[in-house]
């Protein structure tokens, strides 16, 4: 499957079809449409694209906000122009090189299929869950609807059982399923230590203090400031969270085995952004903190956006706000025989829109880091 | 050991020594001194005592704030008068019926000993850790100083292995060690399910999103608003938290056995008050959520300040702010074979000052609930 | 107009009609219905009534939450029982001694009229705005609907031009319009200094950082945690806020003159509760801070719930959270010739439900302070 | 006074002394030292410089944190390397093209003088207040110390009475006093309407909800999270704030007249960043909102970093977090005869470090917008 391959700041049409005919390919950047721009995931995608030198935001769409200028819906974003939000339809999305779908779960399947059918060269990234799971049974168990199929999973850093990275699969992808934010935090924390056989995979545990932006921008009473301020509020307790099968799928891919079991408890805490994944598991007798950190370093030493902290240091979410970084620390509690691996990320960046840009860059042949930063906004 | 026993709103001297001679016992309420009134724990004790009908706040002391009126240091408290904070000394504390010590760890041993030696009838409650642990080894391992001895542990609801409650030991106590706030949240969540044999006690786990007031009122950079806002920040990772041996001691007392092992990770999140203890452990095959809730109900159905929520419901810290309540929910994740038990409390009330008042009430012969409320401040 | 007069904790029917016939008047407390109990104002009324020894909460009603138990809608409140929320109707509200209406503006007129027509002895308190304004023109200008009439204004501390207090009018009232929260903060800050002729009344100004609970519990996007956190957001800029005519009405009553003009800008800031009214106005040459404080003291020295701070001290909203207090500080800026008078209150307590209880107490013949506290929850 | 002039991404030595001799001037970027890098202002300067393509961060210094790596003190910043914080001294600062001083007030005078005496070509930017005021009397009145002299004021957008901009003075500057954050918010909001004669300059008023980062990173009790959360806290009430003379100086420069008088009340509210300046003043009879907006547009239509909002729209601080933008809205309240002009900025960016980079760019001959963005981080 051939495609247009872009180089940074400049386009060069590949010789093979189905590359679109461009009037002057060398002079234009890939045109991107962002679908669902009035939500947090779509808005964050725009925020990052506003600083991305290699693509052009050509179209933004929304649902209830269609017809309003972006400056009203997302006054924090400066694209250099102020586009009006279009209705989300095949018509408005036709003719783009890249379409980023930031839609509620279950809504991206149909439109993606239509766009891809019309133009096999279009790159579609789905920030929703619809195309993440390979098991239709998992999908039906956790999402209670029909499975839309499986796309290339957009987690470049995931180490695979065969010694490669998920990154390698993304360079040829035209359909990319951007991972879930919690799934990213837990999967990248646990995969190396599970792969290394350092922890008991049969009773993995993760508790995740998470910020409110992950719950979306739709007005719901429990998301009101006055409800959230001063409160820590767990949800999806008892293994019902939809990111559980996604993490387990990642661990299977990372290890080449199954049998991992995970309990997973997110806790909404009064912050807008951030996920702190506190992951625990039993270790074998004699396992040390150094063993954990060695395993993490083996998998991530070369990764630009993953930082393994030195012994005794642990990440906070404040130090990753706005950055595309995931930071990890680990310790063994020798008295209790358990490992604790803690990762921090910004759910909207490394957890969503930043991960999407990494994959977009890979699929377009741009440097993977284009438009992304490791510097966070603090305090 | 005899003592003056007070009834609500009225005093009646018991006939036996060492009851102090009172000029007109029927007309006076027990006189309380609060030591360390400028800190959060001491201030909260005063806040609750301001609404307690059965005692009189006679003296408040502080260290660096000595000489200032209470209205400057704690303008939110109305005692009906505005006492000047005294220096903390045996002189200023002599002659009270009750002394509540809210001092940094390690500072209460000497002054408590002096007060008790002078007047064996005085009731001393220590909000610090000094007298909580029975094992000198545990103390030295976790606090790195000499053990001050063991006082009666002020957790009335703790079910004991012999079928009684910790409450029963408090009615005769003159020296009460008020529990740690995190230890209360975890111990009361886990004790019933460990006692009932429903979970594997060898790999207990607790992750606790906690508010900042638990870290005290001393000015430290990492406690600044700008550092804390928008961030989740773990500490004492890897089993080093000082409440670990306290929880294990409670579980030993609750079960009559040892062998429990616990990993424990507090995470500071941007709220002033509140602890949400998310406790997990493996369950035996076939264990259900109902089994967990039954065990919790068996131990707490009669407890005024502990509420076990129905299946599917879980507590938030916002619903206990300012109240002396601990609320618990539980679920079994059958896919992963783990139980999650979640408790919520206000660290300054049920976790500290409210627990102190319960014990004070018990030791003075007052109704245990005097001056305490189950209604929280929300939103 | 005669009525049943209650004394604290005990009822004694007055001999004159229209007192209801009670089976055993001496043994029962007045029965209260709270309408709109699922909102913040209604919930706060319940929170305070839960600790009020002189009345009984007999009925709670709601709209969309009708049929649910209170414990689901307001899990922080412990009334000693768990009532089911009733539909709001004349049927469910009939037969109570007191009805507290916490309804959206414009909805209380009809139901209040029906209840009062059936039973002229019933005491109705309206937490909404419908009956606050005496000028039908003001009502129509600011609320764009038909005026429902004017009830006795429930601000006991307001000093009146004739030397009396608003309190005196409340003892005989059966229909009480509880003031607006912002209007309370500004009116009580400005009335004394305007009455004393210390400031130019023709260009009064107030800027009010306010918490989000004042905006209600209905789910709206701009009230979401993620929208609110980290942002200060002004609204009703340019004199359009509906509390402007209410403040001016209060100043007219306090001075016996008109001609006051006020600009008023609330700013939503990331806190749940609290209003800090920063009021400024020009002073006459030579006016000192002492002059301002003297004027405030003259009007408030005897007021239980209003505290005038000493020179150099200014209130914060944190020190009034949950308390029924209003705290005021003042200063003259001699360089600029302007006075700044700052008041702080909890919008849900002194600004709404606490004020309602004061008026309820007065109208029932109970001590005005019953069920209310001057001690706040901090930190 | 001649200097090296740099063009974006490339250096070209000017022919005239005192340009330093460079081994290969065309191949290197100006070397910057940031003094006080462990504080919030210094840290933010580094955060922005990390993304600035035209300069190189060569040295970072601190006081109590000297000797520690930057990654410990500011883990959110990725400079591409991890410098160790140096002691602040002439030795460590010698040999840089640019020195940015982020020191407590009163500490920059001596070191600046020494650096400038050694090397007249060095560009020094002072983020502290020491060199902002031209009146030694103002300095002594408000800062209670000896005046250090007056530097070129780093507010490019300030319109001057002669029709030029402050920008024009910055292109030749070697000593730049970066404005105060509150002063920027108030000056840029008021200057146009005062210049246009639309408001009475004799009784200007500003109330500013502000975030906590403006108060610095030094540990002080009143800045603790638990003190700040849920509270609005005024300070410097009554005209004592040190930014008052700075604003008045700006208004004098903007109008060419004096006689302006200002009362100014900052209110700390629970957010880390942001200033919302709510400025009010009387208007002449007949003045409309359109008149205000016209005056603002006349002065700012061409300004890249200042946005005047359309009628009816007002800024929030959330929409400028992390961006170098100042957004302004205005309205006339015809009933009260007052104007309200509201500006929003991020105190650390447009209020401090971003303003410093604008001036740095101007003084180095780089495009003024280099390294700065108009896109904010939200939510």
TrEMBL record, chains A, B, C, D:
One of its GO terms (cellular component) is cytoplasm. It catalyses: N-acetyl-L-glutamate 5-semialdehyde + phosphate + NADP(+) = N-acetyl-L-glutamyl 5-phosphate + NADPH + H(+). GO terms for biological process: L-arginine biosynthetic process. Its EC number is 1.2.1.38. It comes from the Bacteria. Catalyzes the NADPH-dependent reduction of N-acetyl-5-glutamyl phosphate to yield N-acetyl-L-glutamate 5-semialdehyde. This is N-acetyl-gamma-glutamyl-phosphate reductase. It comes from Brachybacterium saurashtrense. The lineage of its organism: Bacteria, Bacillati, Actinomycetota, Actinomycetes, Micrococcales. The gene is argC.
